[in-house]
Amino acid sequence: MSFAVPHLSHAEIHVWRLPWSTDAAEAAPFRALLSAYAGPDAPEVARGEHGKPHFPGAAGTLGFSWSHSQDTALFAVGRGSAGFEVGVDVERIRPRARALELARRFFAPAEAAWLASLGEADVLNGFLTLWTAKEAVLKAHGGGLSYGLHRVAFASDGDEFAPLAFDGDLGPAAGWQVAPVPLEAGLVAAVAWRGEPRSVYVFTFPL
User: Fold this and answer.
1) Could you tell me if 183 and 90 are in contact, meaning their C-beta atoms sit under 8 angstroms apart?
2) Residue 149 CB partners (closer than 8 Å, separation 6+)
3) pLDDT tens profile 113-160
4) pLDDT at position 6
């Protein structure tokens, strides 16, 4: 499957929205997008210590990530210096009766306290906003959930969240950018990368 993509500058992150099902053939658009951005001379995709896919060597200036939830998938890509990485996460909003319990167990204490202070109608959206932001960072880092959600802490400022304290080789938090991905009602998503602010553009596959 060949596909042309918009030009990707070093000041941009591109996020593609795709349909998703349990059919393995659904992965074909991911491969088409990655091939289109990487070009014909890209090496084989390698795997990091914790399984994160990346391009080795000089081709590592292209970072990419994907995520899916029920019928929706996202593919994120960006260019930077060697080793540049991006992470994306999407969650479909559905009832989660144990959201506060999970937050108290896996989030930073201040985050769990903030969620507990919300009205019942706002807890789920707040939980998923934090969850997707944390997962996006952990996917970009490559450690995944096993690294620990509590090691990626955010400060809330109204409806916005800012990196506050990132533990271990994730730090410092100030070196990261985390942005919400604007999608329709019923979906919450975030994209993260280490470095300077960039413009995030969302596309639907195919154009």
Assistant:
1) yes
2) 106, 107, 131, 134, 135, 138
3) 999 999 988 999 999 999 999 999 999 999 888 899 999 999 987 667
4) 96
- Per-residue buried b or exposed e for 67-99, using 16+ beta carbons within 10 Å of the residue's own CB: bbbeebbbbbbbbbeeebbbbbbbbeeeeeeeb
Quickly list DSSP for 107-167: S-HHHHHHHHTS-HHHHHHHHHHHHHHHHHHHHHHT--GGG-GGGEEEEEETTEEEEEEE-
Q: Which two tokens stand for residue 170?
A: 């994730």
What would the pLDDT profile of 189-198 be if each residue is shown by its tens digit? 999 999 999 9
Taking phi over 0 as left and psi of -120 to 50 as alpha, with beta for the rest, 151 belongs to alpha
Q: In terms of Cα–Cα distance, which of 187, 201, 200 is closest to 72?
A: 187
Tokens found for residue 73: 């998938």
Q: What is the mean pLDDT of residues 53-65?
A: 90
Query: What are the φ and ψ backbone dihedral angles of 160, each rounded to 5 degrees?
Result: -105, 155
Q: Say which DSSP state 100 is in.
A: H
3-state secondary structure of 68: strand
User: In whole numbers, what is the pLDDT of the chain averaged over residues?
Assistant: 91
Given a contact cutoff of 8 angstroms between Cβ atoms, the answer to whether 89 and 189 are in contact is yes
User: Do residues 55 and 43 touch, judged by C-beta distance below 8 A?
Assistant: yes
Q: What separation in angstroms does the CA of 35 have from each of 40, 65, 94, 149?
A: 7, 13, 33, 31
What domains are defined for the chain?
12-204 (3.90.470.20)
Q: How confident is the model at residue 2 (pLDDT cuts 50, 70, 90)?
A: low
